[in-house]
Design brief:
334 residues; alpha/beta; four-stranded mixed β-sheet; 49% helix; 6% strand; elongated; HECT domain-containing protein; ubl conjugation pathway
Length: 334
């Protein structure tokens, strides 16, 4: 089992640090080694990374993430996942939208909008893609087809190396045997995105006795959480801290509290997944006289404790929680 410790942070890994690490690693892999539209990405063409064996490492990290509670890499294009399953590329399933490389996509756009004269200026780029016919406006369609096939076929060695990494834990064998079952782990489907609705469904508030004033205040705070999450979905940019690098979103809010920003992969894990919300009505007993204190998060226990005194209105709640979110991204409490 992977155990994680972060330099400069005092957290002890009982699961949350591992999930935090894997969440950041998978997100970094998507940015660094893949390109294309969201959730329809292909490996970035890089012979330097291929020669260094980095795509094998990528496959190993993705296998560890899937095996040990990290996020699923649901950013693969359908054709790339199909190749991982059967090692074959079906040309009939490819079109220009399959091309992920930004330069080749630009070349396709230039060919489609070209005149006879401007097309001649693209001769070298077209020939480099393996087109051997006459370069003329009458051949625009086969030229685009050649560029599409070139963009895909040159990625085969990279995908083969990625498959080697996925052999860790026998994952690649499972993909080959059960391609339809494993597909939602690589190709985006339904019910995988963390949104406000999922977070609210996962929240289990520990409320005081009904009819008491404490109970009503606690319900108000739960409603404040809901308002903040839906507000972040409408436009997370305006919830960003001026000095902070990241705005709050439902996924980042969930990752802050639990260490993971993804929907649990297994149905049993999803069913039992819960975020416990507790309420501190007497923070003076803990900190003495003070003007402000912040929510306390325990990622391993998936728990957040809200200081009721400092969150009486939505504006107060929003200010205190956002400040805690932006300043509390490290694992500091043991």
């Amino acid at each position: 089992m992977l155990k994680v410790s972060f330099f400069g942070e005092a957290g002890i890994d009982t699961g949350a640090l591992r999930k935090e690490f894997l969440t950041e690693m998978v997100a970094g892999i998507e940015t660094r080694f893949f390109e294309g539209p969201p959730h329809q990405k292909s490996p970035r063409y890089s012979l330097t990374d291929f020669d260094s064996g980095l795509f094998r490492t990528v496959g190993e990290i993705l296998a560890v993430s899937l095996a040990q509670g990290g996020p699923a890499p649901t950013f693969f294009s359908q054709w790339a996942y199909s190749y991982l399953c059967n090692g074959q590329i079906n040309p009939t399933q490819l079109d220009k939208n399959t091309v992920a490389d930004s330069q080749l996509r630009l070349l396709i756009d230039q060919v489609e909008s070209s005149t006879e004269q401007s097309l001649q200026g693209l001769t070298d780029e077209i020939l480099n893609c393996g087109f051997t016919g006459a370069i003329s406006v009458q051949n625009k369609e086969p030229i685009v087809r050649a560029i599409t096939l070139h963009a895909v076929l040159r990625l085969q060695p990279i995908l083969e190396q990625l498959k080697e990494g996925l052999q860790l834990y026998g994952l690649h064998l499972l993909i080959k045997q059960y391609p339809e079952i494993c597909q939602p782990l690589f190709v985006l489907g339904g019910d995988v995105k963390v949104n406000a609705e999922f977070v609210m469904a996962s929240i289990h508030p520990q409320l005081s006795e009904k009819g008491t004033s404490k109970h009503q205040v606690e319900l108000d705070l739960v409603n404040f959480i809901q308002d903040l999450l839906y507000e972040s979905e409408e436009g997370p940019e305006h919830l960003a801290d001026e000095d902070g690098p990241r705005s709050i979103t439902p996924a980042r809010f969930l990752q802050w509290i639990t260490g993971q920003g993804h929907v649990p992969l297994l149905p049993s894990e999803k069913k039992d997944f819960a975020v416990v919300v507790k309420f501190n009505h007497n923070c003076e007993a803990d900190f003495g006289n003070h003007s402000i204190c912040y929510p306390v998060v325990s990622s391993c226990a998936k728990t957040i404790v809200l200081p009721v005194k400092h969150m009486k209105s939505y504006s107060q709640f929003r200010m205190v929680l956002l400040e805690a979110f932006h300043l509390g991204q490290e694992f500091n409490n043991v």
